[in-house]
Amino acid sequence: MKKISLSLLLIVALLIISCKANLSSTTDSKLVDGHLQWIMQGNIYEVNVRQYTPEGTFDAFAKHLDRLKAMGVQTIWFMPINPISKLDRKGTLGSYYAVSNYTAINPEYGNLDDFKNLVQSIHEKGMKVLIDWVPNHTGADHNWLKDHPDFFVKDKQGKPAVAFDWADVRQLDYKNPVMQDSMIAAMKYWVKNTNIDGFRCDVAWNVPASFWKKSIPELNKMKPLFMLAEGDSTYLAKSGFDAVYPWHMFKMMEKVAQGKRPAFSLDSILTENITKYPKNTIQMYFTSNHDENSWNHADFGTFPKEVHAPFAVLTQTLKNSVPLIYSGQEEPMLRAIEFFEKDPMTFKNFEREKFYKTLLELRKRNKALAVNSCFEKVNLGDANAIYAYVRKNGKNKILVILNLSGKEQTIKIIDKKLVGKTYSVFEEKEIILNSNEFQMSPWGYKIYEY
To answer: What is the CATH number of domain 2-374?
Structure first.
């Protein structure tokens, strides 16, 4: 016990130090701590165009924009909008990530004008747009395979190599500078012609740092962009990306949800992030995305039923977070969506819409949840089950209390700075917090706004 207690003390000390180092608040300037100001209290909503509606088109999805805006969605990330290769295609429709042409639109979704109109509509509603970019590999019949065979890594037979064990795609060769320039030109095409606000870069972790250090500054000359890397390698954050995937934290969240690890295990990941990444590197926390839904049963297996809520609150309020909501989580869609076939989502009940709206509106109005706001753990109960913390930015402060266990827990607020008049966010009323003990239900969650 003494060894565990000492470890906990060291972790808490590091988290408090990070809190003191992050007291700067957002300003009206375009860049804040190296990031675009609009993302600092923002959020991301991932759109699977193929499955979002029965039609599977840009125009059909556009009918949901007002609803998403009302829910509080700020940045929309579209999964790949490019046409899909037919050679070695998986299933009937193929993988979104087997691109056959980097500067064309998937005809299933519509045409270029349809997408441009959609981007314009999103911008008119005050939201931002990211598109999914696939730089590590192309589809098996991409036009470059015919026109520029030297753009690809070769296998032992001298043929374009399959990327990893993905038989429908071919590995690009980043030792070829002409290929790199062609990739940058293709990315510039979308910024110039559709006015998008950034890229989510697929398998970014397998593309060399030299490319990102070259491409990202060039793209930003056209327009300041938000860059999201699929990967958690330190070099990505040091190569120009604003945000990375928090895979270590997600895996730990899974273990806590399954009862395999105590709640305080999350601290070790936060401490690792403090020492691993440049200050204020954005972590795109999530409980689901297209991969986790289709392959790993997120939302109905990983974080089922009531277990989902406290972890969703965690993703929205944790240190350095810009949270992700995947298509259909507000419904919720409690099944795996097909990846290679048509499998439309059904929007009918929107059971979680108010829950997410509450969180997204809180992020927008309260600077305490900005990326660069301070984070401080607080001890309110059994550390094996209760995970509680304060986020602060100037005069703005919130207290988050999560019961990450299936048992009722006792909460006691000792810190006098947390006692007094506050606003209970989910109860939607002002209350007085005192030092009296109270009970928190299994998988319960509370947010108090000061």
So the answer is: 3.20.20.80
Residue whose tokens read 């997600």: 250
**Residue among 333, 353, 374, 368 at smallest CA distance from 447:** 368
Q: How many angstroms separate the Cα of 20 from the Cα of each of 25, 32, 373, 375, 392?
A: 12, 18, 10, 9, 10
Report how far residue 154's alpha carbon sits from residue 174's, in angstroms, rounded to the nearest whole number: 12
* Helix intervals (H) in 39-160: 49-52, 58-62, 65-71, 112-124, 143-147
Angstrom CA distances, 218 to 90, 181, 215, 221, 224, stand at 35, 11, 5, 5, 10
Cβ–Cβ under 8 Å, residues 372 and 283: no
Q: CA dist 405 to 12, 268, 316, 382, Å?
A: 21, 18, 19, 10
Q: What is the DSSP letter of 7?
A: H
Nearest alpha-carbon partner for 45 in 289, 247, 281, 228: 289
Question: Pick from 342, 320, 275: which is nearest to 57 by CA?
Answer: 342
Where residue 206 falls among pLDDT bands split at 50, 70, 90? very high
Q: Which amino acid is at 82?
A: N
Tens of pLDDT, residue by residue over 167-182, are: 999 999 999 999 999 9
3-state helix, strand, coil in the chain (%, to 5): 35, 20, 45
The residues, any chain, with a CB within 8 Å of residue 196's CB and separated by 6 or more, are 119, 129, 130, 131, 190, 225
For 347-371, how does the pLDDT look when each residue is reduced to its tens digit (9 = 90+)? 999 999 999 999 999 999 999 999 9
Give the model confidence (pLDDT) of 366-414 as tens digits.
999 999 999 999 999 999 999 999 999 999 999 999 999 999 999 999 9
Q: What is the spatial distance between Cα 127 and Cα 372, in angstroms, rounded to a whole number?
A: 21
